[in-house]
Amino acid sequence: MSTFLSIYVSIISLGVIFGLTGLLIWCLKDKMGIEEGASTGHTFDGIAEMNNPPPKWWSYLFFIMVVFSLIYLVLYPGLGNYKGLLGWTSSNQAIRSLEESQTATEAARETGQLVQYDREIVKADEVFGARFKELAYEADGQNYRAIADIALDDKATKVGQRLFLQNCAQCHGSDARGARGFPNLSDADWLYGGTPEQIKTTIMHGRQGAMPAWGDSLGEQGVQEVTSYVLSLSGRKVDEVEAQKGQARFAVCAACHGMDGKGNAAMGAPNLTDGIWLYGGSRGAVEETIRHGRGGVMPAWNEILGEDKVHLLASYVYSLSNN
């Protein structure tokens, strides 16, 4: 916040508090010159206005709130850039990455700063951490339960579902069916593999797609031809001559997608023969993908959620297409 805006906010805040306090004090004094409880002479619809002061309980409560508000503004941030005597803040401000967040959290702990979000995270781990371990681990408390087994446990999958709704639904949707550029997690089509271990690895460490742009190297005609061939792989009707020319050019794509176009889970290269399209299967969408490339990013959740939560989350995602 700029210095000007900080001063402006402070003046407005204090001005309202002291202004209303002054107005109340003025109203408590009799300015009418009329006996208290007598009529002021003003009537409307048969109702007379009486010369009565504000109720004492209401006035006392107002003054108490004024004192409370001033104490609050001294102890907590509320007046522009003023940080408050307690050093309290709702969260670490102006962070742009997980690394910056972790650094800010450590710095706050060392300096004794009261960061509400950090305190709530610690409290949540203390309260719910044991429950996550109970659901994720075997009875010995040392080894994780098999993800496929957890997927059959209603209580565990409900916890996994809540984790999904809190952290994953923003991209994949509350029903996990995804959207343009975000994979559908409820079908059997997986870019990086759909085994329990592969799903957990994806959530733990994230994924980064790297479909290069081929527009410059193929040229516009080449993009058209490769598009026709790619569409033909999933049974679409295309110009056969153009598709044959595109098949010859497809060699540059085969390194990732394979000569048969069925993809490679180790690289996250999608299957081009099944009619499932992450960025849309219209001719225009496929042309755009080939011409400009794609670069999707799946964030890593290990350092954010921890492995216990990731394990339960992976079991829920696995259950979506296997139960």
Automatic annotation (TrEMBL):
<protein>
    <recommendedName>
        <fullName>Cbb3-type cytochrome c oxidase subunit</fullName>
    </recommendedName>
</protein>
<keyword id="KW-0472">Membrane</keyword>
<keyword id="KW-0813">Transport</keyword>
<feature type="domain" description="Cytochrome c">
    <location>
        <begin position="155"/>
        <end position="234"/>
    </location>
</feature>
<feature type="domain" description="Cytochrome c">
    <location>
        <begin position="241"/>
        <end position="321"/>
    </location>
</feature>
<keyword id="KW-0349">Heme</keyword>
<dbReference type="InterPro" id="IPR009056">
    <property type="entry name" value="Cyt_c-like_dom"/>
</dbReference>
<keyword id="KW-0408">Iron</keyword>
<keyword id="KW-1003">Cell membrane</keyword>
<dbReference type="InterPro" id="IPR038414">
    <property type="entry name" value="CcoP_N_sf"/>
</dbReference>
<keyword id="KW-1133">Transmembrane helix</keyword>
<keyword id="KW-0560">Oxidoreductase</keyword>
<feature type="transmembrane region" description="Helical">
    <location>
        <begin position="57"/>
        <end position="76"/>
    </location>
</feature>
<keyword id="KW-0812">Transmembrane</keyword>
<dbReference type="InterPro" id="IPR050597">
    <property type="entry name" value="Cytochrome_c_Oxidase_Subunit"/>
</dbReference>
<dbReference type="Pfam" id="PF13442">
    <property type="entry name" value="Cytochrome_CBB3"/>
</dbReference>
<dbReference type="Pfam" id="PF14715">
    <property type="entry name" value="FixP_N"/>
</dbReference>
<keyword id="KW-0997">Cell inner membrane</keyword>
<keyword id="KW-0679">Respiratory chain</keyword>
<keyword id="KW-0249">Electron transport</keyword>
<comment type="subunit">
    <text>Component of the cbb3-type cytochrome c oxidase.</text>
</comment>
<feature type="transmembrane region" description="Helical">
    <location>
        <begin position="7"/>
        <end position="26"/>
    </location>
</feature>
<comment type="function">
    <text>C-type cytochrome. Part of the cbb3-type cytochrome c oxidase complex.</text>
</comment>
<keyword id="KW-0677">Repeat</keyword>
<comment type="pathway">
    <text>Energy metabolism; oxidative phosphorylation.</text>
</comment>
<dbReference type="InterPro" id="IPR032858">
    <property type="entry name" value="CcoP_N"/>
</dbReference>
<keyword id="KW-0479">Metal-binding</keyword>
<comment type="similarity">
    <text>Belongs to the CcoP / FixP family.</text>
</comment>
<keyword id="KW-0406">Ion transport</keyword>
<dbReference type="InterPro" id="IPR008168">
    <property type="entry name" value="Cyt_C_IC"/>
</dbReference>
<dbReference type="InterPro" id="IPR036909">
    <property type="entry name" value="Cyt_c-like_dom_sf"/>
</dbReference>
<dbReference type="InterPro" id="IPR004678">
    <property type="entry name" value="Cyt_c_oxidase_cbb3_su3"/>
</dbReference>
<keyword id="KW-0375">Hydrogen ion transport</keyword>
